[in-house]
Amino acid sequence: EAGVAQSPRYKIIEKRQSVAFWCNPISGHATLYWYQQILGQGPKLLIQFQNNGVVDDSQLPKDRFSAERLKGVDSTLKIQPAKLEDSAVYLCASSSEGTKYNEQFFGPGTRLTVL
Amino acid sequence: AQSVTQLDSHVSVSEGTPVLLRCNYSSSYSPSLFWYVQHPNKGLQLLLKYTSAATLVKGINGFEAEFKKSETSFHLTKPSAHMSDAAEYFCVVSSISSGSARQLTFGSGTQLTVLP
């Protein structure tokens, strides 16, 4: 079974530029998550999708961050314009509804450096 | 609100000696608790999970954790460290967000170093 795919793996941009990350979850997983992991910290949830609907985006900085999952499968996360403090690893995870304590499976992440 | 506190940001052990990574949690109801491991440049991997069954939980690679409600703790242990155990470890608490979908709250992580 293929895991969660993310691209690109690394991205370096200058502040005020735009950037987009892509995630393809495990086939059949209805729930998709985007996390931000700043160096030295644990991952923090940015947004959670259930199929193509948003369940929780309370911690997403909506003035500069946006995310979509139009067909309920893959997803993109965009930052426009980027700030220095956005430098982090962006993790995508997915889970199924098959079990009560559904495990989240994580992708390798995209490391973003904002100069 | 739920939270986890990892009491040590760095732990260093010699190969072959026991590992103890400490975690305390705060939850308004009976929690689900997890330990994840993150190796450099790799995705997070689930080590083990506690979901209100047995309080002593066994995971992969010889790790185990014990849920102690009276102490609100979920410490991770391994009898004998291996060089390949060097990684970042995260204690995580789970809560229900909508329907059956769950959200994870991560601790700040413990970096485990294994010395030869």
In short:
Chain A is mostly beta strands and 115 residues long. Chain A is built from no helices and eleven strands. Chain B is 0% helix and 59% strand.
How would you describe what is shown here?
The complex is a heterodimer of chains A (115) and B (116). Chain A has 115 residues and is an all-beta fold. Helix content of chain A is 0%, strand content 48%. Chain A is built from no helices and 11 strands. Chain A has strands spanning 5-7, 10-13, 19-24, 31-37, 44-50, 53-56, 65-68, 75-79, 88-95, 105-106, 110-114. In chain A, the strands form 2 sheets. In chain A, strands 2, 4, 5, 6, 9, 10 and 11 form a 7-stranded mixed beta sheet that branches. The model of chain A has no long low-confidence stretch (mean pLDDT 92). Chain B is an all-beta fold. The mean pLDDT of chain B is 90. Chain B is 0% helix and 59% strand. The radius of gyration of chain B is 14 Å and the shape is globular. In chain B, strands 2, 5, 6, 10, 11 and 12 form a 6-stranded mixed beta sheet that branches. A 4-stranded antiparallel beta sheet of chain B has the order 3-9-8-7, with no helix packed on it. The A-B interface holds A 3-4, 31, 33, 40-45, 48, 50, 55-56, 91, 93, 95, 97, 100-104, 106-109 and B 32, 36, 41-46, 49, 51, 90, 92, 94, 97-109.
Helix content of chain B: under 10%
Q: What overall geometry of chain A do the principal axes of the alpha carbons give?
A: globular
Low-confidence runs of chain B:
none
> What about the largest sheet of chain B?
6 strands, mixed
Class per helix and strand makeup of chain B: mainly beta
Percent helix of chain A? under 10%
By DSSP (H or I, 4+ residues per run), the number of helices of chain B equals 0
β-strand percent of chain A reads over 45%
What structural class do the secondary elements of chain A suggest? mainly beta
* Unreliably modeled segments of chain A: none
Distance between the termini of chain A: 37 Å
Radius of gyration of chain A: 14 Å
Principal-axis shape of chain B equals globular
Q: What assembly state would you assign to the polypeptide chains in this entry? A: heterodimer
Q: Report the average pLDDT across residues of chain A.
A: 92
What is the strand tally of chain A?
11
Mean pLDDT value of chain B: 90
Radius of gyration of chain B: 14 Å
Question: What proportion strand of chain B?
Answer: over 45%
Termini separation of chain B comes to: 41 Å
The most extensive interface between chains reads: A-B, 27 and 26 residues
